[in-house]
Amino acid sequence: MSDSGVRRPSVKDVAREAGVSFQTVSRVLNGGSRVAESTRQRVLEVAAELGYRRNDNARALVMQRSMTIGVIADGSPRYGPVSTLAAVEKAARDAGYNAIVTTMSNPSPDDAIQAFHEFSKRAVEGIVVIAPRMPIADVVRVVPVTVPVVLLAPGETSHDKFTVFFEDQELGARLATRHLIDLGHREIVHLAGSQDWLDGQVRLRGWQSELATASLPAPAVQYGGWTGDSAYAIGRKLLSEGLPSAVFVASDLMALGFMRALYEAGISVPRDISIVGFDDNEFAPQTFPPLTTVRQSFAVVGERCMEILLGLVRGTPVDVTPAVPQLVVRQSTAAPR
Question: Where is the HTH lacI-type domain positioned along the sequence (predicted)?
């Protein structure tokens, strides 16, 4: 009953008026994706007509659960961390959970302790830590925690305080390098991302490992900083020193900057040099030529992350096998001349 004595409409009222099940209404109101668009619109229209408002506090009291998770991110504007954060937040909504997000650009143990304390006050059921860089992964190890924690950190291992999950970017780098080897390239340079990022470290390691497996020498690594400008500068440098026949670049944005340097010098891709990127950013198919790259499935990472976290919350077995990236072959790679 409301303060005026008039009963508030319930989920059952919405379901009855919309001609759907209670579960369907719940899925729509929680932002679930497994609902036909026409059904979603009908449920939302009926809910608006009836004046239905979800009472999260009452729901949590009845279930004796907050239906809330905490998410720690580093606030990076880069494609990977932003896409991962969006995927985790959406997966939480699809599971009926609210996500409280805290960003920590340069975290100290005190910062992390404060963030976990705030989560505790909100009675979160679990915490997801998106850790593309070493500092966040390091501070989580020293923070006292009383709820399950899933650490999204490529190449790291689980700890007594947290469970690690990631997409196997080292495998992705090996797939990229193997593709170039299979085309016949024997001098494959790597334009590496920042090495204070776990992503940069594991992609470099994958390139090295695949070359070693093929008994090929590893040329000097060209270190960039995830930006197109850094890769452009590397491209100008390699043009003066002598280009290899192929390059594996740590990100699509870096590949774009590198390709600009080649274009300005009249170098043709892939006739003169083959290029593979990483991420399958939305602009990768629009480059000229369209970029061969490694696709990360951020939606899968978000869904798997929530499955793992909820499994830990419920005390059920969880599968933490890394997600598998996919090589997307386009027109920026070919056999060497």
Answer: 9-63
Q: Are 148 and 140 in contact (CB under 8 A)?
A: no
**Average pLDDT over all residues of the chain:** 87
- Could you tell me the pTM of the whole model? 0.78
CATH topology of domain 169-296: Rossmann fold (3.40.50)
Domain ranges for the chain: 11-54, 62-167+298-319, 169-296
| Residues 47 and 76: beta-carbon distance below 8 Å | no
129: left (phi > 0), else alpha (psi -120 to 50), else beta?
beta
For 158-167, write each residue's pLDDT tens digit. 877 789 999 9
The dotted CATH code for 11-54 is 1.10.260.40
Give Cα 260 to chain centroid, integer Å: 27
